[in-house]
Amino acid sequence: MPEERFSIPIGPQHPALKEPGHFVFTVDGEVVTGASVRLGYAHRGIEKATEGRNWVQNLYLLERICGICSHIHATAYCLGVEKLAGVTAPPRAQAIRVLVAELERIHSHLLWLGVAAHQAGFDTLFMYSWRDRETVMEMLERLTGNRVNYSANILGGVKFDVTEPAMDAIRHGLRFLEERTSHYVDVVREDRLFLQRTEGVGVMTRAQAERLGVTGPTARASGVPRDLRVDAPYAAYGDYTPRIVTETAGDLKARFIVRLNELSETYQLIRTLLDNLPEGELKTRMPRRIAAGETISRVEAPRGELFYFIKSEGGEQPARIKVRTPTLSNMDSVVRLAIGHQLADMPMLLAGIDPCFSCNDRLTTVQTGDETRLWTWEALRQYGIDYYREKV
Amino acid sequence: MRSILKDERWSKALEQIKLWARQNSPWAIHFNSGSCNGCDIEILATLTPYYDVERFGIKLQGSPRHADILICTGPVTRQARDRLLRIYEQMPDPKFVIAVGSCAISGGAFDGCYNVVGHIDEVIPVDVYVPGCPPRPEAIIDGVVKLLGKMQGEAES
Amino acid sequence: MNALQQAQDMLTEWVEAWTEPEENRLDAQVTPANLLSAVKALDDHAWGYLVAITGLDAGVEAGTLEVLYHFCAGPAVLTLRVTIPREQAAVPSICTLIPYAGVFERELAEMFGIEVYGTPDPSRLFLPDDWPEGVYPLRKDTELD
Q: A336 vs C99: CB contact, 8 Å cut-off?
């Protein structure tokens, strides 16, 4: 079969470039026949660093693993350390942790919607979703004092309280967001160009999803009813239980629908929470030395299951903290699904798992026979857009 | 930003900068040298209509070969260091760099971590520093405007 | 019978010792030689999914490393624990049974200097290409500035 040469100009080409591409795709014509992943771009050495910092310092470090889901990392960490210490944060604090986690889920899903839309060339949708996202950014800032890295958690509880005016502002903002979300669902279900990029693309069956250990909206879009807030409730989720949102098609479109419908569940959960916030303290005392032991903390981050393993040897610093982010396991599914798809589908396929968003800085290696070319992610994105534009 | 604009002297200076920038259309590129994405999402927010950084005359695009300004985040991981240098080298003169966020300035929370090389100004020269973890979009825009003012000053001297 | 009790039944043949470190958790000590059989038992019964592989270093004096394979089913966490010597640290790959374990095994290998024999892609995952050979960041005796 004759192999097509790509004539799309790519960024700087340096045959001697030793820097690894984030993804390596082998193609035959336009079809991907092999794929592998190489991470490390944002590898900072955090797990090692935790062993040289005390329990409080580590809270501030771990909050910054990811600027998009900072709070869920901090929550997983605090819940774990509290378990080791034999301490439970008071009910009001746990409820506030849930409130911030759900607000974070909203900002994360809307951020993702815009970025995914951008990958497909729908910049209007990107602009609208990020404009709407400002509503939740304001809520978070009003509540916590910061738009990003809210730092709501402390070991033993939370730093701030929720006032009546803040609750009213949240309720008001949610009404707006609800309306906008239902509009987005319409776009995803009905826009012809959008459907072309998403319907029937990147299908993962339920059996595959289970076999690939996928979690979060990616798993739920394939019909796997897995959600830690329900399966293994933590913080105050035992009191405020969301419905598990699933779809069955398992394609990219289903991944969009699941995240948007999850937002509706989140709006409802927040309302119930605000109407039923327990009275009481915001924190409880924590020892400086944490009792020896090993604990596991699992939480439902916006992208899927976030897993923390924390080991103490009874001192002021942890012996080991292991963090397994949802993107790491979900990433493998992208690599496997890529095979048999068009190269043009790669940007959307990756967007479907909602990875670290700055993938547009990544270089991608594309191998055709003996020829290896480095593409910027931007070039790949544009290739996808042009490819489907020509198909119309 | 809104309260600053109430000051007449500042708003006059701002108008001059905007006029110059629109005439000269500086192009900027963005590079993440290993950040947690916190700064990057706030930079991206400045492009959206709510903040609209492009009304100041600056345009964000993709190629270093056409860029006047490099907006950089992150504590510079080992993998990112060479790429950062290469991007800077590909930019034509005169070129300018904005370091956004605590990590870009000092390594931030990751100072001392084994795969982190250090602050951006240990790798390339920096013209403007925008502190914060992350800085809010208004602070980023303020940094951009200050840089535009500096560029205008250098162009006119 | 709850999920952890079921797992215990499936694994009796392969496990040397059991501990219950926390509610909803069960730790099972297995030898490297029995690791694959234990994983296969879980896989044959479709018990949960592999969530993570954690490497632990008890320190130079202890002379051993530990590898923890965490499987989760709902709220239940079953961890297979394998203890190996620090010199010539090696475990078999479980990728023939659990294909996506590959990324976890790559991380384990580069961070702890554990050879995961049979893993389909032994290349580095997180560490840069120019990272020195033989320097394993998460070993306790590795000093990094």
A: yes
